[in-house]
TrEMBL record:
Residues 63-252 form the URB1 C-terminal domain. This is URB1 C-terminal domain-containing protein. GO terms for cellular component: nucleolus. It comes from Lottia gigantea (Giant owl limpet). PANTHER family: NUCLEOLAR PRE-RIBOSOMAL-ASSOCIATED PROTEIN 1, NUCLEOLAR PRERIBOSOMAL-ASSOCIATED PROTEIN 1.
Length: 260
């Protein structure tokens, strides 16, 4: 079973192995993590014990990796990630790169949305945050204007929703095709656990994906991503049962085959 899962969704085991590799780093904060239960850890903490380029911390995906750690099932890992985010945010006050205010806003939005100490976030939320952190450094990106407008319109993040799902998947903008592609890729990257599946199911996202796949508006690339999304759902008997009973997945597969 494990070999099958590794073949279908290798990133799950890749992320887990990377997290284990960082355990010695997290151990550096062991004394400060004791009793840390919220966003506000001790003020004086060495940031990795070295001088870190604050912008490079984002471009090298370090910030994205720390944000991804907020979906860890291990409480101490989440505490370490919240601690690192707090230290990084504090040091942004001395940063001079042009996008510093946007990055601070993203972290403030996350901080204002956390409801419980060491709160565990769903993977789709942390994927969105990780993508946004890097996107904010690329104003030339075709998704920059749409996503920053969406982000600025939210007083808090909704952790029981796919961020911007209806807005970007059903977009009527001139670049709607690119917005839909971006959303499909985020849905694929964010589907890792049953909690993510439940969020998708609540929003009727699978019904929309199935309908879009067979519509005249879809293209080969989008169809490929949708098949990958369905494939990642089909590794668990519980999720397969839901697709079978509520979405007629076998009938849908037959329609897909007849389209070939």
């Amino acid at each position: 079973i494990k070999e099958f899962i590794v073949r279908v969704v290798p990133s799950i085991y890749h992320i887990q192995s990377e997290t284990k590799a960082l355990q010695p780093l997290f151990a550096t904060y062991s004394d400060q993590l004791k009793g840390v239960k919220s966003w506000k850890p001790p003020k004086k903490v060495r940031f990795f014990g070295v001088i870190v380029d604050l912008k490079q911390f984002i471009t090298s995906n370090c910030l994205g990796f720390v944000l991804a750690g907020l979906s860890s099932h291990v409480t101490s890992v989440r505490q370490a990630c919240y601690l690192i985010l707090k230290q990084y945010y504090d040091r942004l006050s001395t940063a001079t790169f042009p996008e510093v205010e946007e990055i601070k806003y993203l972290l403030e939005l996350l901080r204002g949305s956390i409801e419980t100490p060491s709160m565990k976030l769903c993977t789709v939320i942390t994927v969105f945050l990780s993508k946004m952190a890097k996107l904010l450094l690329s104003p030339e990106n075709h998704m920059y204007k749409s996503l920053t407008t969406f982000l600025m319109s939210k007083p808090t993040l909704e952790f029981d929703r796919i961020p911007g799902f209806y807005r970007f998947f059903n977009s009527s903008e001139l670049d709607h095709h690119q917005e839909r592609q971006w959303m499909l890729n985020m849905i694929l990257d964010g589907l890792r656990t049953y909690d993510d599946f439940r969020i998708y199911e609540t929003l009727y996202s699978f019904k929309l994906l199935q309908s879009y796949y067979q519509s005249l508006l879809s293209d080969l690339h989008s169809q490929t991503i949708i098949l990958k999304i369905i494939n990642s759902v089909c590794i668990d008997i519980e999720t397969i049962t839901v697709l079978y009973e509520k979405h007629g997945i076998l009938t849908w597969f037959l329609g897909v085959i007849l389209q070939l």
